[in-house]
Write a structure and sequence with these properties.
- By secondary structure, the protein is an alpha/beta fold.
- It has 15 helices and ten strands.
- The strands form two sheets. Strands 3-2-1-4-6-5-7 form a seven-stranded mixed beta sheet, sandwiched between helices.
- The longest helix is centred in the N-terminal third of the chain and has 44 residues.
């Protein structure tokens, strides 16, 4: 009995130490959210650049995502002096083609092109980007996912930030919407878990971040970094591209603009598969950061603290986790979903920890109907059959 008591006391001490580490992360994440909101407010008040360079928007498309028509309409309505939109598809039988052609017909005043792309790469999206880059005519390139919805001043704000602050790359946070309960669950997790961790990254010295929701950079820098060809074998093309561009001297900046994406996962199982793929992508891209992820899951330490009878620690961790969900999801991201569901944040952490454990063990992912094996460096190897 005495031996069991000593084991329990030792476990309680370990849980206390790691629990306080989890608490420290919640505090840092809250500070990061405040810093982002303050900076975003100040940037919005600054005078915008008088000289905005022409921009080529590159839109790789594969299938008809939910909300696609509204998303691309917002790109065509940008308040910007000169830009073009290049849509790339692997074949003209793609389900999104009629919607793109309709946009072209509605906006003859804008240079919008639909380009069938022949380049094949392990990362199909990057294969399309290689062909689109060859067709682009302007010195600034902006890449975002096909389902991203943007405000009217999006291009002016993002490209203006690139010019005024002489950045290597500008990226954007994104807020997710959904029409299914499973999609809402994932959208909630993005707003109170993924987004806060993204905001913490610059505070701890990580400057090579970039999100698929927006990557805006100079064509010349892309060419110096090896072009899109350099990232065509990787699953995390956005991270790899940002890493290469920032490595040649520029820094990555987070825009004050928050864009939106529409999640269409019909079931929790689909969300699970997506989250596991995402987690394995992080593992092979940033292994050090991946191993430390459980410390960010405060809900896990709430449960362990309760099991160790550390009532005060459990209460403080719960309150801090809910507060961080509000600060990161609502204050920084302006997500009402994060505000209303914030008391469930510890439950998301338990889900995220289960995803982490699963991602830790395997090397395969499912992506757009294909199965791939991930190498240690994050490259894709297709599994035949």
């Amino acid at each position: 009995m005495m031996y069991s008591g000593k084991i329990f006391d030792t476990v309680a001490i370990v849980v206390s130490i790691l629990g306080f580490a989890a608490l420290a992360y919640q505090i840092v994440a809250m500070l990061a959210a405040v810093f982002y909101r303050v900076e975003a407010t100040l940037v919005k008040r600054r005078a915008q650049s008088a000289q905005l360079p022409p921009v080529s928007i590159l839109k790789p498309v594969s299938g008809l995502d939910a909300g696609f028509a509204d998303a691309i309409q917002g790109h065509a309505l940008q308040d910007y002096p000169e830009f073009e939109i290049l849509f790339g598809v692997h074949g003209l039988d793609d389900a999104a083609v009629p919607t793109i052609l309709n946009l072209i017909e509605q906006h003859p005043e804008i240079r919008i092109r639909l380009i069938p792309c022949a380049t094949r790469a392990p990362n199909g999206k990057v294969g399309i980007l290689i062909d689109l880059a060859r067709e682009a005519r302007y010195p600034v390139l902006l890449v975002n996912d096909s389902d991203i919805s943007v405000p009217k001043n999006y291009l002016r704000r993002v490209a203006g930030r690139l010019v005024m602050q002489k950045a290597g790359l500008v990226t954007c946070l994104y807020r997710a919407t959904a029409h299914s309960l499973a999609g809402l669950w994932e959208a909630f997790g993005i707003s109170i878990d993924f987004v806060p961790s993204t905001l913490v990254a610059p505070l701890v010295g990580i400057r090579d971040f970039g999100l698929g929701s927006t990557l805006c950079f100079w064509r010349a820098d892309l060419e110096k970094a090896g072009g899109f060809e350099a990232v065509s074998n990787f699953i995390a093309d956005d991270y790899q591209l940002a890493r290469r561009i920032t490595a040649i001297g520029g820094r990555a900046l987070m825009s004050e603009v928050v864009v939106e994406t529409n999640l269409s996962a019909p079931s929790l199982f689909d969300v699970w598969l997506h989250q596991v793929r995402w987690a394995r992508t992080i593992r092979v891209s940033r292994g050090d950061g991946f191993l430390g992820l459980p410390i960010t899951h405060a809900g896990l330490w709430v449960v362990l603290a309760l099991l160790c009878h550390l009532w005060s620690l459990a209460l403080v961790l719960y309150v801090a986790r809910v507060a961080m969900a509000v600060m990161g999801g609502f204050i920084a991201l302006e997500s009402s979903l994060a505000l209303f569901l914030s008391p469930l944040a510890p439950l998301w952490d338990l889900w995220a920890f289960a995803v982490w454990l699963t991602a830790l063990a395997g090397h395969t992912v499912e992506w757009r109907g294909e199965r791939y094996r991930l190498t240690k460096t994050g490259e894709l190897e297709r599994i035949e059959g």
